[in-house]
Specification:
Blueprint: E1 2-6, H1 10-21, E2 25-29, H2 33-40, H3 51-60, E3 64-67, H4 70-74, E4 79-82, H5 97-107, E5 114-118, H6 126-137, E6 145-149, H7 159-164, E7 169-172, H8 176-185, H9 187-190, E8 196-199, H10 201-232, H11 236-244, H12 265-279, H13 284-308, E9 315-319, H14 334-344, E10 348-352, H15 357-363, E11 368-369, H16 373-377, E12 382-385, H17 390-393, H18 397-403, E13 408-411, H19 418-423, E14 427-429
Parallel strand pairs: 1-2, 1-4, 2-3, 4-5, 5-6, 7-8, 9-10, 9-12, 10-11, 12-13, 13-14
The protein binds nicotinamide-adenine-dinucleotide.
Amino acid sequence: MRIGVIGTGHVGLITCVSLAAIGHEVVGGDNDPEKIALLERGVAPFYEPELQPMLEQQLKEGRLTFTASPAEAVKDAPVVFICVGTPPRVTGDANLVAVEQAARSVASHIADRAVVVEKSTVPSGTAQRLKRTLQRGRPQPEEHLQVVSNPEFLREGKAVHDSMHPERILVGGEAEWAFEAMREVYKPLTDQGYPLIETSIPTAELSKHASNAFLAMKISFANALARVCEKAGADVVEVADAIGADARIGRAFLNAGMGYGGSCFPKDVQAFEHLSRRLGYDFRLLQEVARINAEAIDSTLEKVRDALWNLEGKTVALLGLAFKPGTDDVREAPALTLGAKLLAEGATVTGYDPLAAANAKDVLPELHIAPDPLSAAAGADCVVICTEWPEIRDLDAGELKEVMAYPVVVDGRNAFDSGTMADHGFLYYPTGRPPLL
Ligand SMILES: NC(=O)c1ccc[n+]([C@@H]2O[C@H](COP(=O)([O-])OP(=O)(O)OC[C@H]3O[C@@H](n4cnc5c(N)ncnc54)[C@H](O)[C@@H]3O)[C@@H](O)[C@H]2O)c1
């Protein structure tokens, strides 16, 4: 099938390579000419496991091309995916300007009979507006133009895997012929047994927000639990193991730490809360989820203050800067929020990350970057574990103590073992577990 993809960022590029890999002829379009130039040379603009070789292979096999012209991307394409960004406005609701612009730029070039797929995460009701915008650009009868919602559930750091092995593919639509087109797009995956769920458009749109809000809620529950465990002398990891063993609860997303970040959870929780309010329901639980998430960073900061007293003139090393392991993405990364607060209080901050250091430096130019964890920790008064990369988890506690000015570790991800830290004489502040003071 000939497929056009508008927006070749984290979701759009993965969509391009995975649709090409399952046999479609894909043209990816983006209004960022520098990104397109990189992609045409076969260079992925961001890190994602398996992405680079897959991009090279699909380009070589000729099923994938890129263009800076939206008209070219959608030309003769019976299916067009919209994958542009939907960042938050200051009010918390989703900014849909890019979605509208993308629709306007393709409207008059769209094929005679086309399904436009809303893959970006958008508030319920967006498909109607999208359709109206497309119709304005090129009036077409219902049987020639349909909009469907096909939210993306991929996880950064596992995005290629998630696209090629989806737990479910969700399609919300109205017309049978549009559902039929989407069944054809995903046939190579459904033939392997991956389920495709068909719903109405509002149900599909809402499911994405509900999914992210629920996962964020689990993380915030674990973080609130951590605060209580700290006061009660309990161990949040053991509590999470105990309650997570119950299949009704599940162990996933119950790790207490510095909270969620990234380009999705913070904005989607806000956008869902905002949407609910606009629809007439005050979803206060979501406000609390966001508040507990912010509190998780402040609680980590409080431990640094407790260990170091005044921060002026002290050096703090942040190990891990990406919002989670496996990615170079630092959007809404808790490490950088903490870093900004430490800098504001007069500390010198050094950071290490295996992939995200350059992106972190762009966001926080005052950050000193070290090439490896031990160099970052060298001479530090305190190390904070912000992202649980394997190379950080596997650090040798003895070597770490050797290079630090004082052996103080605030473990924002419970990456280290308390027994080992005790053996080496660290002042150790884990999250939601008894500290070694
Ligand atoms: N990143 C994730 O893990 C993830 C997961 C699921 C869903 N989503 C959702 O997918 C959407 C995209 O997210 P992302 O992380 O890929 O964003 P991104 O910022 O990485 O990519 C967006 C891309 O769209 C391009 N773009 C913007 N306006 C355009 C236009 N008018 N025409 C053509 N291209 C345009 C940008 O240049 C950029 O390359 C968002 O709604 C997001 O919430 C993201």
